[in-house]
Amino acid sequence: MMLAARLSRPLSQLPGRTLSICDRENGTRHTLLFCSASCTPLGHRTYASEANPDGSKAVLITGCDSGFGFSLAKHLHSKGFLVFAGCLMKDKGGAGVKEMDSLNSDRLRTVQLDVCSQEEVEKAVQTVCSSLKDPEKGMWGLVNNAGISTFGEVEFTSLETYKEVAEVNLWGTVRTTKSFLPLLRRAKGRVVNISSMLGRMANPARSPYCITKFGVEAFSDCLRYEMYPLGVKVSVVEPGNYIAATSLYSPERIQAIAKKMWDELPEVVRKDYGKKYFDEKIAKMETYCNSGSTDTSPVIDAVTHALTATTPYTRYHPMDYYWWLRMQIITHLPGAVSDMIYIH
Ligand SMILES: NC(=O)c1ccc[n+]([C@@H]2O[C@H](COP(=O)([O-])OP(=O)(O)OC[C@H]3O[C@@H](n4cnc5c(N)ncnc54)[C@H](OP(=O)(O)O)[C@@H]3O)[C@@H](O)[C@H]2O)c1
User: Rounded to 5 degrees, what angle do the CA atoms 291, 293, 295 make?
Assistant: First the structure.
């Protein structure tokens, strides 16, 4: 009965939120922050619950050695959060770690954290607990940002590679979330998972990455449903192309992946596709290294909103017009139509 009543609720009674746009001039394209709710441009939103400078709003971010994680750690610190910056290279003295440590702030603490290691994740939970004034009150936020990427058509990609990427992007997210949930539940806090536009739509030669991000989306949706009655809010941020701004790809990394891939290819695949075809694909991939937006602020703004707004959005889409439109077409129109536009 209640379900029938809900389903038959007139549209006018639904919360008045559909789509939001934050327009940023960036390079040749406008980078937008679209969200799956609200008509308010993100830049005009109010941050309903400002971070408490006494450090009660503690947030742990994974993958802070570089890229989004590094910028986000510094940004949230500047907003007054108590930031635990999980770094893969803390013990090895990575450059990002040194820069954050040099701020000498009590509210920005780097923590050794490989999301593939249960032991390191548990140690990070202990570190957070022992730093909180009152661990019984829990921890406000977790941002699952750590990630790696690779490329290669299905026939060029080894099962080992699929597993390696999933270990960080998917199982790392699941492992870290499960370990921090008791603290997050106590604070009725926030989980923000960094997925990707490739977690919503597939792309050729990106299957090892896409499947992990589709997994992050599914995990986030299940968690959001489960946590709703417990007061923990779960958001997903789906960045578009920011390759030029982060360390996800470099020409050296692409060459190293390509060499390993070719060396390990089954003979039948090498013979059928040929080296020329393979090299052309690698050259195309190399052209992506300098592609995309160099301004990561739409991503940083999205995560900040998800952590601070009274009603955070389910999904944030910081991406340019081209990718946003493509994602709408692929996710809303029949496959035959989107295939005709983007594949055939
Ligand atoms: N850049 C884009 O265009 C884009 C688009 C959509 C989504 N994303 C997502 O955004 C997130 C951040 O990536 P980014 O673009 O900022 O690239 P990035 O600069 O390479 O940052 C990823 C970070 O994760 C760290 N990391 C790798 N393996 C880890 C592990 N096992 N445990 C903990 N940390 C680990 C990396 O450390 P090291 O540097 O030491 O390896 C690096 O600091 C990723 O989830 C990525 O999939 C990026």
Answer: 145
Average pLDDT of the residues of the chain: 88
Is 162 a known active-site residue? no
CA 82/CA 53 separation, integer angstroms? 8
Q: Where are the domains of the chain?
A: 58-246+293-341
182 C-alpha vs ligand 1 centroid, how far in Å? 25
Decide: 124 in ligand 1 pocket, CB within 6 A. no
Check if 166 has its Cβ closer than 6 Å to any atom of ligand 1: no
Residues 6 or more apart whose Cβ sits within 8 Å of residue 82: 55, 56, 57, 58, 59, 107, 109, 131
pLDDT bin (cut points 50, 70, 90) of residue 344 is confident
Looking at the predicted structure, is the pLDDT value of residue 287 above 70? yes
- The yes or no reply on domain 58-246+293-341 and CATH 3.40.50.720 is yes
Q: Supply 109's token pair.
A: 């603490």
CA 288 to CA 250: how far, in whole Å?
A: 9
